[in-house]
């Protein structure tokens, strides 16, 4: 009898840490998702400040595109280093410092009196946010079972797109109420508080059942081997080409486009543009769940591309009503959510301890294509 009672107590004691670890994993993931939320608020913020920024820094369309893209150039370069750093060292301190850097960049941007300072401030933000996606997926690999990776990584896009939506209508309203500079001060305060929360709440110790080694075993030859694999480069190009249309339309020119098309004020146009972010926020986890349920990653990628193409064409060429435009943008965003399958395949096709490095390479495609398409579209608009 006594041995039975002791065994039951032992099972209960073993279950408690596992249960606590399971709940704590979602706490960690929520903080990472807030970082993604913050990243996209900062990234898309110029789209609701176009008039103010062009007036403040005496810019044309191409100049504004370059200012917005200055966020992406350092982001692109930083990807080369952030992935290996997160794989080699514990991500807690690195991620907290990155969030704080974003907050400081927002302060500098709000203070900027010259274009050079504004470009530098956007660059600082770009370096900081380069940790957001990689930290999220690294923590997912550490704290969640491999079979949940596709679904949980799909939630990444949900957090990111909620940030994009917050950077549209709510931020547009805030800009109209207190001005673009004070709005950025509020954004910086959010980032600094989040950095403190992240450092205070995230543990250095990994769960005992983690599939990721806590030892800094990654070496240069591992990175070289990763770069030699053709499928990693194909996934990078797929991710960049699939995501860049949404980044250009939602991140800079979408609000202005909808204002001109339907004669809306800025908050109304920003709300309409938010439909594509809502679509991606829903589409990424749904398509991630379907790919895990049926183990059809490639099929989901193709279906997503077709849906996003149909939605984009309808949004651009069939805008007969605001309702149809919003539905088309939602479909465009929903289909674009399949781009997250690139990260899932990258993890599956490479060693688990190289998760952040693989994600960094694939994620480079988003910044690479976005960095030249934003000013390119601005140039076309100047010529039209």
Automatic annotation (TrEMBL):
Cellular component per GO, a single term: lysosomal membrane
Protein name, per record: Lysosomal dipeptide transporter MFSD1
Residue span(s) of domain Major facilitator superfamily (MFS) profile: 25-384
Membrane topology note: Multi-pass membrane protein
GO molecular function: transmembrane transporter activity
Subcellular location: Lysosome membrane
Pfam family, one: MFS_1
Family membership: Belongs to the major facilitator superfamily.
Catalysed reactions listed for this entry: L-arginyl-L-alpha-amino acid(out) = L-arginyl-L-alpha-amino acid(in); L-histidyl-L-alpha-amino acid(out) = L-histidyl-L-alpha-amino acid(in); L-histidyl-glycine(out) = L-histidyl-glycine(in); L-arginyl-glycine(out) = L-arginyl-glycine(in)
Annotated signal sequence range: none
Keyword vocabulary terms for this entry: Lysosome, Membrane, Transmembrane, Transmembrane helix, Transport
Subunit structure as annotated in this protein's UniProt entry: Homodimer. Interacts with lysosomal protein GLMP (via lumenal domain); the interaction starts while both proteins are still in the endoplasmic reticulum and is required for stabilization of MFSD1 in lysosomes but has no direct effect on its targeting to lysosomes or transporter activity.
Top-rank taxon: Bacteria
InterPro entries per UniProt: MFS (IPR011701), MFS_dom (IPR020846), MFS_trans_sf (IPR036259), MFSD1 (IPR052187)
């Amino acid at each position: 009898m006594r041995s039975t009672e002791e065994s039951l107590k032992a099972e209960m004691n073993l279950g408690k840490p596992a249960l606590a670890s399971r709940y704590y994993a979602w706490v960690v993931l929520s903080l990472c998702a807030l970082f993604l939320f913050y990243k996209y608020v900062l990234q898309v913020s110029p789209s609701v400040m176009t008039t103010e920024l062009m007036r403040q820094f005496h810019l044309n369309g191409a100049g504004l595109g370059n200012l917005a893209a200055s966020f992406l150039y350092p982001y692109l370069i930083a990807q080369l280093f952030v992935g290996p750093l997160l794989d080699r060292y514990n991500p807690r301190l690195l991620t907290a410092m990155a969030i704080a850097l974003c907050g400081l960049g927002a302060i500098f941007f709000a203070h900027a009196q010259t274009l050079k300072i504004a470009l530098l401030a956007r660059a600082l933000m770009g370096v900081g946010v380069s940790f957001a996606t990689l930290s999220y997926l690294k923590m997912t690999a550490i704290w969640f079972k491999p079979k949940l990776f596709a679904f949980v990584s799909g939630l990444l896009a949900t957090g990111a797109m909620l940030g994009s939506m917050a950077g549209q209508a709510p931020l547009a309203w805030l800009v109209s109420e207190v001005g673009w500079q004070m709005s950025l001060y509020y954004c910086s305060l959010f980032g600094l508080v989040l950095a403190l929360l992240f450092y205070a709440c995230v543990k250095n110790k990994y769960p005992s059942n983690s599939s990721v080694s806590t030892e800094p075993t990654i070496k240069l030859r591992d990175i070289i081997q990763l770069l030699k694999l053709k499928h990693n480069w194909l996934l990078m190009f797929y991710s960049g080409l699939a995501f860049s249309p949404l980044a250009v339309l939602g991140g800079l020119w979408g609000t202005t486009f909808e204002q001109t098309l339907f004669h809306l004020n800025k908050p109304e146009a920003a709300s309409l543009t938010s439909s594509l972010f809502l679509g991606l926020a829903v589409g990424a986890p749904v398509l991630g769940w379907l790919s895990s349920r049926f183990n059809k990653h490639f099929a989901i990628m193709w279906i997503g591309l077709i849906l996003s193409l149909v939605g984009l064409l309808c949004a651009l060429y069939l805008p007969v009503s605001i309702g149809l435009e919003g539905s088309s943008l939602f479909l465009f965003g929903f289909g674009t959510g399949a781009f997250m399958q690139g990260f899932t395949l990258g993890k599956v096709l490479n060693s688990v301890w190289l998760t952040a490095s693989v994600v960094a390479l694939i994620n480079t495609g988003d910044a690479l294509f976005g960095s030249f398409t934003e000013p390119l579209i601005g140039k076309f608009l100047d010529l039209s």
